[in-house]
């Protein structure tokens, strides 16, 4: 089974960037508040890394949303790109 999924990674990156900007935080401030490094947040937003569940939880905590809501947003973005499961 292929583990690389460029469409999913792109959708995650776009949702993270959009939601981070919506709360008015720079990558650096978001990283600090989430307990992540600024370079790691940059890597996530530029499709160079994929988050673990623990990182996803930290991201969602900082954005004050559930992981379910975030993943649904990623899925909606992905479907909007013409991709389905």
Overview features:
single chain; 85 residues; mainly alpha; 5 helices; globular
Brief synopsis:
By secondary structure, the chain is mainly α.
SSE order and pairing:
Elements: H1 6-22, H2 27-34, H3 38-45, H4 53-63, H5 67-80
β-strand number: 0
β-strand percent reads under 5%
Number of helices: 5
Which consecutive residue ranges, at least 5 long each, have pLDDT under 50? none
Intertermini distance: 14 Å
Rounded to an integer in angstroms, the radius of gyration calculated over CA atoms is 12 Å
Can you describe this structure?
This protein has helices spanning 6-22, 27-34, 38-45, 53-63, 67-80. It contains five helices and no strands. Helix 2 crosses helix 3 (38-45). The mean pLDDT is 93. It is mainly α and 85 residues long. Helices cover 68% and strands 0% of the residues. It is globular and about 30 Å long.
């Amino acid at each position: 089974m292929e583990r690389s999924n460029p469409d999913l990674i792109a959708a995650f990156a776009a949702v993270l960037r959009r939601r981070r900007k919506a709360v008015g935080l720079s990558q650096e401030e978001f990283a600090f508040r989430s307990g992540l490094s600024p370079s790691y947040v940059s890597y996530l937003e530029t499709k160079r890394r994929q988050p673990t569940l623990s990182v996803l939880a930290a991201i969602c905590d900082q954005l004050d949303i559930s992981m379910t809501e975030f993943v649904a947003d990623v899925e909606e973005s992905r479907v909007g790109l013409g991709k389905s499961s």
